[in-house]
Amino acid sequence: MAKAFPDVKKIRYEGPGSKNPLAFKHYNPDELVEGKPMAEHLRFSVAYWHTFRNAGADQFGQATRLMPWDDGSDSVENAVNRVRVAFEFFEKLGAEFYCFHDRDVAPEGATLAESHRNLDEVVKVLKDEQERTGVKLLWGTANLFAHPRYMHGAATSCNADAFAYAAAQVAKAMEVTKELGGAGYTFWGGREGYKSLLNTDMGRELDHLGRFLHMAVDYKKQIGFDGQFYIEPKPKEPTKHQYDSDAAACFAFLQKYDLVDHLKLNIEANHATLAGHTFIHELEFCLTNGILGSVDANRGDLLLGWDTDQFPTNLYDTTMAMLTILRGGGFTTGGLNFDAHVARESFEPVDLFHAHIGGMDAFARGLKAAAAIRKDNRLEDFLKQRYASWDAGVGADIEAGNLDFGELSEYMLKKGEIAPNASGRVEMLENILNEYI
User: Fold this and answer.
1) How much helix, strand and coil, in percent to the nearest 5, is found in the chain?
2) CB neighbours (10 Å) of residue 34?
3) Nearest to residue 271, comparing CAs of 252, 293, 244, 290?
4) Which helix (H) or strand (E) holds 356?
5) What is the pLDDT of residues 289-347, one digit of tens each?
6) What residues have CB less than 8 Å from 437, skipping those under 6 apart?
7) For a disulfide at 235, which of 136, 220, 245, 424, Cβ 3.0-4.6 Å?
8) Cα–Cα dist 378/391, whole Å
9) Catalytic (active-site) positions
10) Residues 108-125: pLDDT tens digits?
11) 12-13 vs 23-24, strand pairing mode
């Protein structure tokens, strides 16, 4: 087939002084940061669904994107052609990973068996292209939300057959993820939530979701898949309330159903803001509780209340994100997956490159800034000093569990008043952060 992007050459690093819109200004994959190549720190991944299946339609208008390689059919032949285009894009962009839903890469058939056959045909081509290019699968997942059979949810559906169908679909998606050497597998709730509590047995639905994930853990062992499992929090959309609403809700769920040892979280920036949190809050919560796995790198529009999935360009967010990720030891099986789509008015094929280049440069700048902050240690030193009262004396005894309320009462009655508080220096710290950005 003819090349889909004939006018685009492989994207190269040209440095901050370059004015070439099809060049990296900050992402230099071989540059060492804290002793490790930038590419290994960032593990960039392209989201198949947004990049090759999102045509630019929205609630109020038809598709706008020009995708001359796609004939608009649901044929396996068109799906295979789309794979070739995707890997041309991955190669020219220099992204080492990609992610997909099963129904992104292969069309749904009239029966489950036909859907499986379609997926098998496309997986053969995905495997060939991976071997040809060296591009790897970061994680796979199953689309358990688009088809009408999942109108009431999948693992939390009131219809037991929908649960069974979802199990069969996930089993197949796990099998092909393993076949493709995927580093992980993600569970996104989709419609695992409710519209109205008038028709919802919340306790029973949560029990079913816990049962579903334990079945997945068992099947993972059965087929010998050693990739990491992830849950992706999202507070709303499409349901009014998603059971996996934020990192804290997911952690509570994992603890209740004895799944903490089996799943980590895939944090999406836009989902964090929809939950009323910052992206960094969700990352920090996961780091604190040992459940940070992977990241969907995007951003939302704070003036809009839905999932806009824009490409990340906010340097404060990328710097703080990489600071948290570096403190946690960096990615292992996870990475930075661009779960983002071009704007509806950015409809030409080249716009896909502009969008991903911008996101990759933004995170490269964030990585370098975070490494500089860690090397300088001013923020860390301030934090250590702020909590110094806990490193000795009564604070150390409290943390060690050596004191009770009675003993603390005696301590304060004798002392009379607390030691003077010190300023939190919020503005100074923000000024320091600005020095690196």
Assistant:
1) 50, 15, 40
2) 12
3) 244
4) helix 350-376
5) 999 999 999 999 989 888 999 999 999 999 999 999 999 999 999 999 999 999 999 99
6) 315, 316, 319, 365, 369
7) 245
8) 19
9) 101, 104
10) 999 999 999 999 999 999
11) parallel
